[in-house]
Structures are given as structure tokens and as C-alpha cells.
Records
---
Amino acid sequence: MQNKHFHAPQRAQKKPKTISQNDLVALIASSKIEKSTYLEPEIVDAQVKTFDEFAISQQLLQNILSKGYTQPTPIQAQAIPAILADRDVIGIADTGTGKTAAFLIPLIEKVVKQPTEKVLIITPTRELAVQIRDELASFTDGFSIKSTLLIGGMNIERQKQNLKENPHFVIGTPGRIKDLLKSPHFSLTQFTNVVLDEADRMVDIGFIHDIKYFISLLPQQRLSLFFSATINHKVKEILEKFVSNPITISIKQKETAPLVEQRLIRLEPGMNKIDTLHDLLVRENCTKAILFGRTKWGIEHLEKDLVRRGFHVAAIHGNKNQNQRQRAITQFKEGLVQILLATDVASRGLDIPDVTHVINYDLPATHEDYIHRIGRTGRAQKQGIAFTFLT
């Protein structure tokens, strides 16, 4: 693996398979939509039954238990010992399987034992980066472990200052990481532990060349951790350059009835869409709902309309800066607003408990977008409902 700068030639990205209204109806009718993707993983039937069986410090164990974690999920039971043993890992697992803790726990332990260790975590979205940072903060309570976020929508000069403090953990998105590589206080050669999280999503949204470029700048001797829901030929291109003699962990759910009940709302001639949504929100008692639209302008218009109708809402989309987006998510998590309006920027990475409903006000562009949208509900063994408007 050579450690030199290069810029890979630009190639056309393979577009995700689009979905028509008829295709979506057929998929739901035939029950082919994710039979168990959104179920919380079963407790693993393996040797590791509790977190105190891992070779981790007492303080870290207490922080894990204080979060209410009792038994490791399958990805945690298999990945944590491997990472503690300094093995590269390929984890094939969906959001909601506990994969964030699966790599954070052993990496924190490495830093506790050797404070000179540095960790780089690369994610596709700002929201996922913030979520990982928050989980890291809860696990490192009581430790002198520093971390920083490198994401767009936030002050880049402040991020440069944070890098000067030599944080143990750097969590960022490809675009901002690339921008900050020009800074004298940020070099990828510093990082001997690297995580690529939701690698398939990074490929889907066009970051494959940036990721290859980053890999070329990393030290040859490093721990490489790779997590993805799927492995296609583009993702394999990254894998070949990234990991060395890895342990592959694939978490497959049992086929059971889904916890997401899927319903269609057909708009007949003469029916007003916003009035139908209003009636739905009242009738269904949507106390914690995420509503998805296709465009940021459509979401802005809908936000104003729902506020005029007396609903407590917040919105996240591309026209909102990161502080505004994070404030909206916090208000939704804390129950200060009942409806979170979002474009597909929120369909990946958000892990908000107790979401009762997902509403596809606009049809998603792809089958994959639909899967990730409805996956925001039906979590933690709780029933969820997904409504999709059809015209």
C-alpha cells in the first residue's frame, strides 16, 4: 500500500435503482419490504453474554451499563474482541444493530491504554457524525479523551482550532475532511485507527474517489474498520485498498414479521393533499412522526403550512445550517415538537427512539430511500407505522 498523493480519475457513478409508484405498491403488497431489517438484533447466542466479559476498563464498563446496555448485540459480541486484538474488521450490518458501540467501545479502550493512539471516523452525513460524537461522549464520561467534529455547516476556523488541540477522536464527513487536509494541523498520517462507517452510502452519494484518496494518505500500519449494509463492486474497490487480513462479520436477521406496518394513502380526484395530511396527523395521534419530502423548498412550504394549522414542527434540509438542523433534531428528541420534516438527508444515520410514524408525503426516489425512511420507526421492539401518499 503506497502512501502518496493521487487523484483518481472521475468515472460516472452508477445510479441507484429508481422506484415508480406502481413498483412501490407491488413491493408492499407482496411483503418484500425488509422482513426484519428494522428489528432490534437478538441477543447473541455465543460465549460472550455480558459486557463485563470483555477486556475493558472498569470505568468504561460502568459507562456502558449506565446507558442501559446489558447484553452485547451480535455485531458487538463479535467485533469488540476482534478490534481489541488489533484485527481489521469488515462489518456487514444495518443501522440499528449496535454497530456504533461495536467500534467505539474497543477504540476507547485502546486510547485509555495508550493515549497517543488517534482515531479517525469517516461517515456519509453530518447527522450520523453528530450521533457518533454524542455516543462517544457518553462512553468516555470520566476520561480525559478529546474529540472533534469535522462537518460542513459549522465554523471551519473553529474546527481548525480544535485540531490544534490534538484530539484523540476525529469524526467527520468526506467533504469537510478534504477541505481541512490543507490545514497544517491535520494530517491523515497521524491516524493509526480508521473507521469507514456506512461505506455503501458514501459510495452512493459520490464520495468513492475522496475515500480512495484518503486511504492513500493513511499510514500503512494501522487498524482498519469497515462497516457497510451492503458490499457491491464499488465498495469492494475500497475494501481492497483499505483492510488487511480482516475478520468479516455479517449480521443477518431471522425472517420474522416486520415491526413496521406499511399503509398506502391514495389521493382520489378532488382530495386536497395537505388537508388529507392534517386529518391523518389528528386521527392517528402522531405524537412523534418523521415526515419526508423530496425537496427542501417543498419542506419549507409544508413547515409554514403545518405551523399555521397549529402543529408543532421542526425541519431539516439542505438550506438549514448545521446548528439549525441539530436544534430541530434535539427539539424532536425531547418532545418539544411532534413532527420532524426532512428531506432524505435524514433517512440514514438518525437513531431517534420512540418514533411512532413515518410519513412519505412525497414518494421516495429509490427503493433504498424508502427502506431507510421507514426504518426510522419500528425500533427497539416497538411497533411503528409508515404511511405513503400516492397520487
Note: The first strand starts at residue 89 and ends at 92.
---
Amino acid sequence: MKLSWFSIVRLGLIQMSLGAIVVLTTSTLNRLMVVEMALPAILPGFLVALHYGIQITRPNWGFLSDMGGNRTKWIIGGMAALALGGLAATVGTVLIAGQFALGLAVSILAYALIGLGVGASGTSLLALLATATEPRRRAAAATITWLMMIFGIALTATIVGKMLDPYSPALLLKIVAVVVGAAFLLTCLAIWGIERRVVAEPRDEAAVPFMTGLREIWGERDARHFTIFVFLSMVAYFMQELILEPYAGLVFAFTPGESTALSGAQNGGVFMGMLTVGIAATGLKIGSLRFWVTFGCLASAVALGIIALLGQTGAGAPLSQAVMFLGFSNGIFAVAAIGSMMQLAGQGRTGREGTRMGLWGAAQAIAAGFGGLFGAGAVDAARLFIGSDGTAYGIVFLFEAALFLIAAAVALRVISGKPRVERPLTQGEFSCATM
């Protein structure tokens, strides 16, 4: 027996819960450290980079869930670790204001726990989807769970943004406790009984050692060049993650609630961008994957240029609209890039689809951590030498736009303009399309 559409949507609720917790730690807590506490942006940048870096352990969690024959316990256990990490990160942020060393120590442990929780729960969830979904439904299942995650991020950011004003540490702790508790409870209800009703397909063991297979894939020109594209585009994609909300607070006088709601507007734009490509490319057959990837990169560059220019006008500028346009452009790029990964994974040496997707997933994780940390560090350096916050942030946004332009040029050389041929997806393909 395979997963029904209803069961797939239930599993999507877990992905939505995961996104709801993570957005609090990467956006709300980040903004509070930089604006309300006047800490260097490199500090939250380091913490978020730590959470991404630890997610390199995803293959280990997938292996454990494969060998154990019980993915449910890893999904629930991982979500418990993520919920505890999210609450601990909030406590650490509050402590930093009065007891810096203690607060920082708590925050480091918390973000490490967040990375482990995301890796264990997210990887095991996607492995269950990959092995228990009919091949003809796998692409749709991946899209459903991805969109539900984005919806969870946007909804949480919007609601928390409205509830957080006027800001106080006690209110912050109360809100985060409710969010993480609800996310854990929803996960337990969503996964309960599903795995017992489905029969997972057996997986073939690798015929060669991991490092040997990885060297073989790296020797393929298209796989190697696409890895470069993934790294460049993901660095550009994540550079704004830690600096956008502080930018809104310092330059446009946004309150903590308003800047958190800004993240909701951005992710709402991402959601709409993904739907646009899904309807246009899949339903209406408009444009190839190469067209949509390139268009998304170029539109993202334009949006970043607008956001940089708005910094010269200050309060009253239409920042929210520009950020929503950035999210819309990012959504177009992201979903088309995922489709391109699926297309390219089947090219080259056969039986190595998972290795290719794992290589690109590793590039994505490294780029996410490096991009956020580099963006935060670049802002700190620019503010040190430039008197205007708007100009300092604008320079970093323009650099990010330049990376998107370079990524668009690489995409034109690497991604085929031919329509994608549908085929079953491997577990590795799902693993790359995660946080």
C-alpha cells in the first residue's frame, strides 16, 4: 500500500511545522540581536551558519532511518530536538542582553540542536515520502510538501509579527513556547499511524564506496558545473536572510513586529512565485526550466537593486512591496532550479542519481551557511567604513544582485532548454529541496 493524497498532505504538515520553528530563529531572533540589542550582525550570522553546517549530517540521519526500519521515531525525535532548540535559542537571546557569555553559550548549544533536529526530522520525512509514494505521484508530493513549508514560514512570520508588538522578552518567550509546542503536537498527530499502513520500496545498496562514487560524479562536466551554479545561486539566495530585517529596522524604522511581518511578505511572494512556475511550466507548458531559472535569477537581481536604492529614501519607502517582489522572484528561481536538478540527475553514469543530488544538496547547505555569514559580515564591515546604514546595506544587496547575474549566465550554459521528461524521483532528490 502506498501513500494516499490525504497522507501526503498530512506529511506536508510536518514540513510546515519545521518551517514555522526555523523562521523564528533565522529572522525574529536575528533582528532582535542586531537592532534591539545593537550586537554585530556577524553574531546571529555565526549562529545560523552553525545550524546550516550541522545539517551536513543529513546523510547519516537518512542512513539511520533506513537501517532502523522505523522512520516515525526519527521524525518525532527530530522535531522534539528542533522544538527544544528553538525555545533554548530564544532563552539564549534574552540572556545575551544581561549575561552575554551565558547567553552565547546557550545559543550555540541551541542552534546546534536546531541543526540536528532539522536534519533528523526533515531527512527521515523525505525518505518516507520517497519510498512510500507511487512514482507517478512523487513530483507532486515534493511540490506539495515544499509549498506547505513555505506557507508555514509565511504564516508564522506574519502572525508572530502582529503579536510581538509591543515587544518584551516575556512576550517573546511566551509566543515561541506556543509555536514550538503546537509544531511538535501537530507533527505527532500528522505522522501517527501512517508508516504502519505503507510498505516502503527496498533500496539498492551502493556498489562502490561513497568517496569513489562521489569522485565519479565530480568527474562529469555537467554535474560539476551545475554544482557551481547551485553554490553561486544559493549564496546569493541566502545572503539577505540575516540582513533584511535589521535593514528594515535601522534604515526604515520598522518595529520588531513589522520587520517579522516583512519576512512573512517575502515568503508569501516565494509561495506565489513557485505556484506561477508550476502553473505556467507544468500546466500551460510555457517556457523551459532553463528559461524560468534564468528569469528568476534576473528578476531577483532587479529586486535587490530596487531594495538597495530604497535605502537612500529611508522611512516611508515601499520596502514591503519590493521585498514581496524579491520573494516572488526567488520562488520562481528556486522551484525551477529544483526541477533542473531532477532533470540533470538522470544524465551521465546510471545508478548515481542520489549521489548527484547529494552533491548538490551539500553545495546548497554550505552555500546557505556561508551566504548568511558572509552577508552579515559584509554589512558589519561596510557600516564600519561608511557612515550611512542605507548605503552600507545597499552595497551588500548590490553584490548579491551581481551573484544572481553570474548564476543566470552559468545556468544558460549548464541547464538544457529541452522540456523535462517525467520519471520517478530518488530519495536524494527530495533531500536537496529542504532547509
Note: Residues 5-201+209-432 form a domain with the Growth Hormone; Chain: A; fold (CATH 1.20.1250.20).
---
Amino acid sequence: MSRIHIYLNLCNTYKMNLAIIGATGLVGEEMLKVLDQRKIQFTSLTLVSSKKSIGKSLNFQEKSYQLISIEDAFEKELDVAIFSAGKEVSLNWAPVFSKKGVTVIDNSSAWRMDTTKKLIVPEINGDELTHNDKIIANPNCSTIQMLVAIAPIHKKYGITRVIISTYQSITGTGRIALNQLNNEYNNIDGEMAYKYQIHQNAIPHCDDFEDNGYTKEEMKLINETHKILDPNISVTATAVRVPVMGGHSESINLTLEKSFDLIEVKELLAQSKGIVLEDDPENFKYPMPINARGKDEVFVGRIREDFSCENSLNLWVVSDNLRKGAATNAIQILETIISKGFIN
């Protein structure tokens, strides 16, 4: 039996006690979809919600689950808890769960830059995980799709500099942003996720501004690239929120250590795990968020040489931020620790 078949067999038959912390949020909902689609098996499933939803029921795989508090979840016998309930919840509760022996996969920013925690994109550094990693950080959504796309290029050619501009879906802000856009479409007054109208607009402001003039989202792209891929890569970023519901898009400019052949670059990406190459501009084929919505892959196209700088090229990268950018990457981390036999 091949290693791949053993891995799939483990993922499809392994039993565990699993909790989703933040099950009713946009990412939590996607996690349940991904669990179902990837046929992750569990002995028990615990679903935790915010206070306003505690006691309500949620249907999953033809079974009704009562939503409970995180305090009640802590009293249960759990093997894995996937957190997607915000930074403060993760800071307060992830250490408590992990000390109890629960493996925590955290989707917030709480632990990403903690030097004692692994920041994991399974296609890139999943092999770094050990049995001792009890809090595992899920990177920022825009970082994940960028690094999946450029990691194979860095491995072969060496990247010295990255210039990235993002065009990020409103779903990255949560349900309140989705409601704002829908209200604006329909000329309805309602709660605002952003200071400004998002319909027919582009807002160069993702997350809070830092003292250096960059937003936290932009600094995540820089800092997380250094931690996951290579601290010697120079990175600069501009992050923009756009009125799109189904995925993030990124314009990426790379400067490489070595010369390259565009055909070889395209072949490399087409053969790389987690990537779908869509690069046929003559036939109007290129990545778009409307086509990436609901899919787990990272789509790459518009690959072309940057004639203004030696050994440089441009990429257009698109992925569903709720899927590969959050839920799917977390479930892939779960699959990785299952395949390594780390769940007792």
C-alpha cells in the first residue's frame, strides 16, 4: 500500500473527539462543510457558539447538535479543538485546552508570531509538526494563498523580493460585512462593518493601521512570510478591501536569485500540490474569485516577465479565503496530525 493510500485510509477511518469553537461564524460554517466533504471521521463532535446562540441546534450530517459554551466544551473529553472565535478567545482558552492534552488548531492571529508555536501551511511546512505541538497556528488567509503559489518558485529559483497588492473579499471581515454589502445593494440602512460604503468602492484599509503606516493585514503578509518561508525575503504589501463575496485576489511581483524560463515556471506551478494553473489569456482564461468560490485550491495565472527588473515576474493569485484561506487549511492541518499518529 502506498503512502498516499495509507494517509487517505487514516483520514477516512480515524475516530476522535472533535470540537469546533466558533461553529456558527462564516469560517466555522465552512469548516463543517470541509469536514463533511473530506470525510473526516469522529467519535463525537462538539459545537461551540457565542453566547447569543447557546442552546440552539445546528444540523450536520443528518444529525442535530446543540450549541454549547466554551466552558461546557472544556469539561468534555476532547482530542482536537479547532478555534475560530477570535483572538481573545484563543488567547484565553487555547492554553487551557492544550494543558489538558487537547491539540488546538487556531485560526486567529493569537499565536501566529509566537516563537514557540508552529505556523503551518501543510503543502509547505506540514512536515515540521511534532507530537509536542499542542497549539498549532493557522496563517492569515492572504498569506496562505500567496505562499502556496510562490513556495515552489522560491524552492527552485530563490526569491529575494516580493511586492504584493491584495484585493480582498468582504467575507474576510465576517458576517457583518456581508450584511453591509447586501444592504447597500438593496438601498437598506444597516450596521456598518466599514467606515465607508463598500458597494462600488475599494477601501485600502484592511485591519487597523500600525505606527509605521502599514495595516496589520499588510504586516501579517510580511511577518508570516518570514516565519513560514524565509526570513531573508524582502516583502512589501498593500491590502485593499473590495466588494467581492467569494475570494481574495493578489497581484504578486517576484524578484528571483536565478534566471528563469516562463514555460518552466508554469510547468512547475501546474505540478505543485494545491495549485491550479489558469494561464491562457488568449482564450480569456485567468483566475477570478467568482470561479474560486467554494473550492480548496489556489488558482494562479497572468504569469509574465517583469521587463522593468532583472529576474522578475508577475503572478495573479486567487483563492477562496474562507476555504483554503481558513477552514480548509485548518482541516488539512488536522489531516496531517492524524496521518502522523499524533492524536492519542
Note: The chain has two domains: 3-139+326-339, 142-321.
